[in-house]
Structure formats: structure tokens, C-alpha cells
Amino acid sequence: MSTSNYEAVGEIRAATEVPTFCHLLAVAAARHADRFAVSWWDDMEVRTMTWFDYRERVLNLAGAMLRLGVRAGDSVAVLGRNNPEHLMADLAALHCGAVPVSVYPTMAAEQIDHVLADCMPRMIVVEEHPQQQIVRHLPWVVANQPKLVLFDPLDEPNPPTEFTWDELLTLGADSRDWVAEELDSRIAAIESSDPVTIVYTSGTTGFPKGVVLTHDNLLWEVEAMVRTGTVDYDYRAVSHLPLAHVAERLWSLYLPMRLGGHVFCCPEPGRLIHTLQTHRPSFVMTVPLVWEKLHAAAQRVIGTAEFDSRRADLDRDRQILRQVAHARLEDRPVPAPDAVAAVRAREGLLRDVRRTLGLDKVLFASTGAAPMSHDLRIALAAIGVDIHLGYGLTETSGLAACDRLGSGGRDSVGLPLPGTDIRIAADGEVLVRSRGNTTGYWRAEDSAGLFTDQWLHTGDLGYFDAAGRLHITDRKKDLLITSSGKNIAPAAIENRLAGKSFIDAAIAIGDDRPYVVALLTVDPTLLAGFAEQWHLGETSMGALIDHPAVLAEVDAVIEQVNQGLSRPEQVKKYRLLPDAWSSRTGELTPTFKLRRNVIAGKYRDVIADLYS
């Protein structure tokens, strides 16, 4: 089966009429000169830069990079969190005709060295102190001595290869006239087919591969997203996910240029709610894990004394929103009285709850990068936050399909973007054809098998429902085949378990085994709350995960989940784990996907015991 949304759409980039993002930034600086472009925290104070000043600073930095020997075609790596320096270093490299590469700061040293050795940067911009020490001693850096620019160095830089950020700014301002002709020449020489970035996939099975995305790819992607109507308004967003991920690059770098939007940089997860409260974004895209934390924060707000006297009204409003969300996601009609009651519920006390979290002005809330459980989606709808799902890969420039306002269905990831063709191969694999598709990997040999004709192999399994909405069932390579020959999609099990009660993350095991088992991690805060509620008298994690009352709760969750699964899919045994999984400890990628082989190796004995 195949579907194309708006097949008649031709050159959807025509609305921008620019060949590169360097030209688009110039348009934004001229058209929106006095509008806010970027804000950030300076201790507890908010600092802001206009579009005119943003571009001026980028051009100054580009001049400094020219003076330090960055050539057209070189790469410039940035290891940093979400801050204006990261954004400006990225765009400055682009104006030199170089290729910016954001590197996940949470990667292990071996992984960082692999990325740098692959893209061979002429310059590396490094923010945090731990990364500065790591980068200085990486084998590739020691051997090749690229220029290092340190945001806030712990000690004196070592000339001639190390510079501070302030030195770079000063050099750029002093060199502006001297390099003006060369900079103009570099910008004019950039073509739409040139790389705008190399994005390294997070690598669930091994070292990441560099995906080349061109100006044409990402300009096309941005225009397609604008046409969906999901971002085409007074665009305000919070930059908080890693800029090494293509989705965050879209929200923080490319879409704001097209829309003259305003981005607030939030480099610290602990300050996300404070940043939301300050910025009041109109657009929020984040991963399911962060939405879980925002929902937990909403629950804490609802539980405060402020709402005690109106508890019945609040419960009624949440129930009607929950009821309407269930109906809409199940494609059932919503009676007019319920629809009106839902409007009033959004306008009532729940708006105050959303205001407390900084979510009261959100026009479009979305999620991606990992599956979101249906229960969490309904729970967020019950406070007035309707989550829209999307789907795409780094290789498709981010989004290939997404929900539109009012079009979502249960577990669907929406409709193809305008001008994007998606079809399902005979073996169930999702294939994508669009101008957003990568031209290939940085190392040509890695691109073997990526395309058949113009169709990109996603490696995901999926189907279209009767309405033409795409559903993703699992990764093709992640399918479990039990010893009895049953094919099982583990995500279908894991998504039902994760987020239930105090369960945090889940992984299903069963490949070449007689039945499915699960490893489960717990949310310490929610587990402590459960223990307090039932007066268990235990506080240590080790004691709690073995407590009969805790195990009885998990048994009930497993029983409920199994009712919605076929017999081969049902979880026969499980083990609660005291560990938290993260990208730093290796069980998750930087975008929170499970590293199945790492987890299977780490818990080899536990898994063996479950099958003993």
C-alpha cells in the first residue's frame, strides 16, 4: 500500500525563494530585525537577542573562523548543550562554507572520538568542563591538533590551538572588514545541494553513522512542515533536547529562521519548567520521558491546597476531557454536549494548572523519537494538553509524517507530510520517497542498501489504517522470533508497560526463547509514593522492589497488559531492577531508545534466571 499527501504539491519550497540557510538568515534579519530571535538564562536573568543582532554575531564568528583557517568543505564540531553559543557556532560554520556537526555531549569518550575521526573537524567548539578535558586527550585530537574553542575554560588555553569563546568574538569583530569580501564569496559559492549538517544517528547497535543533510533537504522539510499548519503562527519554542538530534535542529535552528520565531535556550533539564513558565511557548515538542515528568508535575500542582475547595470541579473537568480524548482517538463521534463541556473544562481550573507549568499558551504539543503510551497521551489530554504524534528518521530530515490538528487516531503517527510518498513493502517495511531524504551517509560505503530506486528503507515496520494514517509497529531488526516461530514486536509490549503505576522503562525479551519475559525499571519517586500510600515501612530501593505489596502491584499491571496481547506476546515472567537506565550508563541512546544488546549483555544472568 502507498499513500502520498497532496500529490499535486510541486516545488513547496517556492514560498521561501532562497537557495540556502545563509540566505534565509539574511531574509529573517531584514524582515524581523527588531523581533526577538533567541533568549537564554544568564544566572537568574533573561538575556535576549534580536534577529538583526543574531545574524551580526553569526557573521562576526564566521569571520573569526575564516581567520583561524576554516575552509570551505571543512567540518566544525560543536560539543555543547542548548545555548545561544551552540546555535551561533553552528550557523557561523555554515556561512564559511563549512559543515557544522553537533556531537552529543553525553556520548562516551570512545564514541566522541569515533565521530570526530569520521568527520575530521578543522575546529571543535566545546562547552562543558568535563568535555573539555575529554576532548583534549582524545586520540584523534592529539594526533591531528584541530583548533579548540572553549566556552568557559577551566585553565588558560594553550596557544596556538586553543581559544576562548570571548577571544573568538573579539577576533571576529576586529576582522569583519578584513574578511568581508572572502565571507561574501564563501556564502555566494554555497549551493543548495551542499551539506547543511552531518547528523550522527544515535546508534542502538554500534557506532553511529553520519547522515548528510543538504540545504535543499532541510529547506524543503521546513516548508513542508509550515504547509501542515502545525507551526505557522507566532512561533515560540524552548530548545532543550540535544542539538545533535535532527528534530531539535528543526525546532531551534531552521524553523525559527523561516518563521521569524523566538527560541528560548534551556541547557539544564532541571530548569525546563521554569523556562516554560518564563517563555510561554506556542510550540512544544519533546520526548515521551519529558512529557511523563511534566504530567507528574501537573499532578503535584493539582494536589496542592490551592485546589482543595474545587476538587470535585477539577475531577469532573478532567473526566470529561479524558472521555472526549478517548472517543476522538478511537474515531468515535463526540456528542455536542460533551464537546461543549470539554471546551469549558479547558477554560476552567485546568487552564490555571497549565499556566503554572507554562503550558497555557501552547497551540501545538507533540512528541517523537520514541513511542508514547496511550495511557500517557490520555492523561495529558485530561489536563488540556493534546499530544500529536509524528514519525521520521534522521535520514528523512526529521519528520516524514505527523498528526494534524484534529486528525489523530490511537497509536497512529499521522499523515505523510505534503509532497512525501510513503508505502509499505511486501515484508511490512515502511519506505519513504521525498526531497527531504538524505543524499546518503558521510562514508559512501555505509549507504549500501539505504535506497531502492528513490525509496528510502526506514527499517521500521508499519501499516496504514482505513483513514490513510500511518502506524509504526516496530523496528524490523528488533522483531523477536520465539523458539516456536512466532514473530513478536517488542514495542507493542513495552509501550503498554512503561509508565504504568511506578514502572518507568521496560524491555521485552524472547528471541529464540519459549516465551516472553520483561525487565522493568522503576521511578523512585513514584515507588516511594506507593510505599507511603500503603504504609510499607520500607524506604530502600533494594527492599522495596522485593516487597510483596510492590510485586503484587506489578503482577496486577502485567495481568492487565496481557489481556490486550495475544497469547505468544504475553509476559510470563518479569524482574524489577533497582537500576535507572540512561544514555550515560549505556542502556539508552541519547534520544532515549533502548540499546537492546547492551541491556541483554548487562543483565545476562538475570535473563537466564527468568528462563531457568
Automatic annotation (TrEMBL):
It comes from Nocardia xishanensis. Keywords: Fatty acid metabolism, Ligase, Lipid metabolism. InterPro entries: AMP-binding_CS (IPR020845), AMP-dep_synth/lig_dom (IPR000873), ANL_N_sf (IPR042099). This is Acyl-CoA synthetase. Gene3D superfamilies: N-terminal domain of ligase-like. Belongs to the ATP-dependent AMP-binding enzyme family. Pfam families: AMP-binding, AMP-binding_C_3. GO terms for molecular function: ligase activity. The keyword DNA-binding does not apply.
